[in-house]
Write a structure and sequence with these properties.
Alpha-Beta Plaits, five-stranded mixed β-sheet
Length: 356
């Protein structure tokens, strides 16, 4: 890999494609922090960084890349973001606690004034108009001061709340970035692993969830014939079809190079099959072509389905859906196989949900 000249706006897409291709050829994991390093290295905007990346060789380790990330992008490095956010939150919370302590002290002083005034009036056998005027004047000053102080406290708390909300928003943005596949902008494997594990945290999840695994047919041939940039473009197009052909609340992720996963909630096995079939047909009928009009098709996918109630755990669910996907591949591709229909399907062991 050689450092490149600084990019123009028109060259941006070519650089992004180059980043993805270079990382893939070097075996670099598609983490947001790695994309940041290679983007800067390929644009040549930081000459020293470019030289350090070139110096890593053809198979850099993640530790080596993280060392470069900490050196050149310390303010954006994942651990630094979280640590800095914790410091800011701790400081803001301490400021809020100080404001509330000050308010408590102010209110206690106000109560003390009221108590002393009440005791003073009770101990006098005769209250004159002049005394009452003095008392009313003193109470008016104390009350107005307390009201003004209360307004200041409310304003300060609003500012602190806004600052904390900003920190929370930044952390949520980072979490979303960490859980998003940078090529397709759908969920990544990390987010998928979290979501599929959640299925087995309740009996409802086990009863009413299904997993669909989808894999692009003969994808290696596509890459070998047209190159990785075209392969990436096809992956993006299929991700777009998946996103737009399912309910908004349905989970879809890119779990591998050309593999996708969908978690279907609240549907029977037949309804899940119909969802998968609709997606399969849409992809089969889509024309995949480049800007020059070159047709890359036909592009098809194979799919495997497993109901959560047919598996013992998240790992077991994935393995069985993958087994069904494999059946679709060996039986001719461009088809869907239910795990429940595979010849070597073991007996279901969720005795809790089995009817006699």
């Amino acid at each position: 890999m050689q450092p490149a000249a600084a990019p123009t706006l028109d060259a941006h897409n070519d650089i992004v494609t180059g980043v993805v291709t270079t990382m893939r050829q070097m075996g670099v994991v598609g983490l947001p922090r790695n994309y940041e390093i290679f983007y800067e290295a390929l644009t040549g905007s930081n000459h020293n960084l470019s030289l350090e990346v070139v110096g890593l060789g053809n198979r850099p380790s993640q530790d080596e890349l993280d060392r470069i990330g900490r050196k050149y992008f310390a303010q954006n490095h994942d651990q630094d973001i979280v640590a800095q956010a914790r410091k800011v939150i701790a400081k803001e919370l301490e400021d809020i606690a100080g404001i509330l302590r000050n308010e408590r002290s102010h209110i206690e002083k106000y109560g003390q004034i009221l108590g002393e005034t009440s005791d003073g009036l009770s101990n006098r056998s005769m209250v004159t108009r002049e005394l009452l005027q003095k008392v009313v004047g003193a109470m008016s000053v104390a009350t107005n001061s307390t009201i003004d102080h209360g307004r200041q406290v409310a304003s300060a708390l609003r500012e602190k709340s806004a600052e904390l909300e900003s920190v929370k928003s930044k952390l949520e943005e980072y979490k979303k970035l960490a859980d998003t596949d940078p090529l397709t902008h759908i969920w990544n494997r990390r987010a998928f692993d979290t979501r599929i594990a959640r299925i087995y945290s309740s009996s409802k999840g086990i009863l009413f969830n299904a997993l669909i695994l989808a894999d692009i047919d003969r994808f290696k041939e596509i890459n070998d014939r047209y190159g990785h940039p075209v392969g990436d473009k096809i992956i993006q197009m299929i991700a777009d079809i998946l996103k737009t052909s399912i309910r908004q609340d349905m989970f879809v992720a890119r779990t591998g190079g050309e593999e996708f996963a969908l978690i279907v909630d609240g549907a029977s096995e037949q309804a899940t099959f119909e969802i998968a079939e609709r997606i399969r047909l849409l992809i089969e009928q889509t024309r995949f072509s480049g800007e020059t009009g070159l047709d890359y098709g036909p592009i098809t996918i194979s799919m495997g389905i497993c109901m959560a109630s047919d598996a013992e755990s998240a790992d077991d669910l994935y393995a069985k859906a993958d087994r069904a996907l494999y059946r679709s591949k060996v039986n001719g591709r461009n088809r869907i196989t239910k795990f429940s229909a595979t010849p070597d399907r073991p007996l279901k062991s969720w005795l809790l949900y089995r009817k006699d």
